[in-house]
Amino acid sequence: MTHYDLVVIGTGSGNTIVNKRFADWKVAIVERGTFGGTCLNVGCIPTKMFVHAADVAATPSGSSRYGVDEQLLDVRWTDVRDRIFGRIDPIAAGGSEYRHHNPDNANVTVYDGTGRFTGFKELTVDNKDGSTSVFSADQFVLAGGSRPIIPPVPGLEEVGFHTSNTIMRLPELPRRLAIIGSGFVAAEFAHVFASFGVEVTIVARGDLLLRYEDAEVAERFTEIARQRYDVRTRHETVRVERRDDGSILVKMLSPDGLDELIVDELLVAVGREPNSDLLNLDATGVEVDSEARVVVDEYQQTTVDGIYALGDITTPHQLKHVANHEARVVKHNLLNPDDRVESDHRFVPHAVFSSPQIASVGLTEEQAKERGIPYVAGVERYADIAYGWAMEDTTGFAKVLADPKTGQIIGCHIIGPQAPTVIQPVIQAMSFGLDAYSMAREQYWIHPAMPEVLENALLNLELHPEG
Ligand SMILES: Cc1cc2nc3c(=O)[nH]c(=O)nc-3n(C[C@H](O)[C@H](O)[C@H](O)COP(=O)(O)OP(=O)(O)OC[C@H]3O[C@@H](n4cnc5c(N)ncnc54)[C@H](O)[C@@H]3O)c2cc1C
Ligand SMILES: NC(=O)c1ccc[n+]([C@@H]2O[C@H](COP(=O)([O-])OP(=O)(O)OC[C@H]3O[C@@H](n4cnc5c(N)ncnc54)[C@H](O)[C@@H]3O)[C@@H](O)[C@H]2O)c1
What we know:
Blueprint: E1 2-9, E2 27-31, H1 37-42, H2 44-63, H3 77-101, E3 108-119, E4 122-127, E5 132-142, E6 146-148, H4 156-159, E7 176-180, H5 184-195, E8 199-203, H6 215-228, E9 230-232, E10 236-242, E11 248-254, E12 257-263, E13 265-268, E14 272-274, E15 307-309, H7 320-335, E16 350-352, E17 358-362, H8 365-370, E18 376-381, H9 386-391, E19 397-402, E20 409-415, H10 419-422, H11 424-432, H12 436-441, H13 452-459
Parallel strand pairs: 1-2, 1-5, 2-3, 5-15, 7-8, 7-13, 8-9
Antiparallel strand pairs: 3-4, 4-5, 6-14, 10-11, 11-12, 16-17, 17-20, 18-19, 19-20
Helix pairs in contact: 2-3, 2-5
The structure holds flavin-adenine dinucleotide and nicotinamide-adenine-dinucleotide (NAD).
Residues 9-14, 30-33, 37-39, 43-44, 47-48, 114-115, 143-145, 164, 185, 275, 278-279, 311-313, 318-321, 323, 353 line the site of flavin-adenine dinucleotide.
C-alpha cells in the first residue's frame, strides 16, 4: 500500500497548506468536487461579484434623492454570470492543473475523488474515473468543508430547487423567486435577485431575518427588507408542488393558517452541515460532536494524534477567514511539531453583503446581558455624520459595546454603507487590547470619511473615568 507523509482532504483552505516547505514530504491531496472549494467556486467570491453588480443595478432606484434621475435599462444576466464565472472557472482549473502537473508539485499526488477512512490512518478514494485507490499516511488534514442542508419539505426533491451551489448558474433570470431561509445566503441573494428585477419572497420561520445578529440590527434589517421583498416571517414551508404551467406552488403554515405562494424558482438557504459523514471517521477514531463537527483541540488536532482538521468541517464559524486562519495554524503545527501554535477564535468577525450591509464582531447586547457582563453602549447613526448626509442615509448605525471600567471593547455591530470595511479598526482594537477611550481620542480619524460613524459611536460611550 502506498504510504504518504501527509494527506490533505479538500482543496478549499486545505489547498493553501502545501507549499515549498513541504518539498521533502510525500504528499497526497484528495478532492471530490471542483478544485478550490466553496469560497472560490460557489461561495464568497462569486457571491460578492454578483452583489457588486446588484449594487450597480440598484443605484437608479435610489438616485433621485440626490437630484439625479437615472434609469436601469437592462440587466444582461448571462453577461453578468459569464463575466463572473469567466474569471473564476479558469482559476479553479489553473489550481488543479498546478497541483497535477507543475514541477513544483513533483512530490504531490492528486486524487480526484471522494476519500473515506477504511482503517486507522488508511484512506480509500473512490476516484471519479471509477477506479479506487487505497493508501495510508502519518498525518492527515481534514479540510472537507460543508454543504447546504436540505430540509425535509415534502415535494422538494420532485419539484427541483436551487441551493447556493447552483443558483448563480441559472440559464435565465426567473420572474419570481422564493427563498426558504433567513440567514446570510438568503440576505445576500435576495439583494442580488431583487436588484436584477426579480420578485423575491423570503420565507422565514422566525420573527426576524438574520436573527443571530444584535437584535436592533436584525430588526432594522428586517424592516428594510420588508420594503424591498415580500417577507413572510413566522412561516414554515410545509409542501412544494410543481404546477401544470411549470411554476412552483409553495405551501406555508403561518400563525394565521395556511398561506400559499407561486414562484418560478426556489432557493433553499437554511444553513450548512459539515461533510464529516463522508469520511467514515469512526474507522480512524476521529470524534465528531453532536452537530457532526470534527472535534479539535487548540492546535486544530483531532482526537487522533497527527490528524488535524480545519474550516467548515470543524468550526461553528463557517467563514473563509476562519478556515484560512486555521489552515495557517495547521501548516505551522505540521512543520513545527515541537513548537505548535494555538488557533485564535477570540474575536471572529463576520459581514453580510446585502443591502444594507452588516458587520459584526464580539458579543451582541443580548449575549452580554445573558452572560451578566457589564457594558455600556455607544451608538451613532450614519444620518448624523457628514458622509451619511452625502449619502442621505436614514437607516444605518454603528453600535459599540465596551466594559464601562476598562473601556475594552466587547462587541461592535454596524448596519449601513461599507459596514464590513468600517468595522475593521474595531477588530484590530479588540485583538490588540486597545481600549475604546484611547482608540477614539489618540489617533486621527479622516474627515469626513465613513469611519467617523465609528469614531462618534466610541465617543458616545459613557466610560469611567468620564471622557
Ligand atoms: C454562498 C456562500 C457565500 C459565502 N460568502 C462568504 C463570505 O462572504 N465571507 C466568508 O468569510 N465566508 C463566506 N462563505 C463561507 C466560506 O465559503 C466557507 O466558510 C469556506 O469556503 C470554508 O472553507 P473550507 O476549506 O473549510 O471548505 P471548502 O472550501 O468547502 O472545501 C472543502 C473541499 O473538500 C472537498 N471534500 C469534501 N469531502 C471530501 C471527501 N470526502 N473527499 C474528497 N474531497 C472532499 C469538497 O469538494 C470541497 O472542495 C460563504 C459560503 C457560501 C455557501
Ligand atoms: N457573508 C458571509 O460571510 C457569508 C455569506 C453566505 C454564507 N456564509 C456562511 O454560510 C453559512 C450558511 O448560510 P445560510 O444562510 O444557509 O445559513 P444561516 O445559518 O446563516 O441561516 C440559515 C437560516 O435558516 C433558518 N432555518 C433553518 N432551518 C429552516 C427551515 N427548515 N425552514 C426555514 N428556515 C430554516 C435558520 O433559522 C437560519 O436563520 C452561514 O452560516 C455563513 O457561515 C457566509
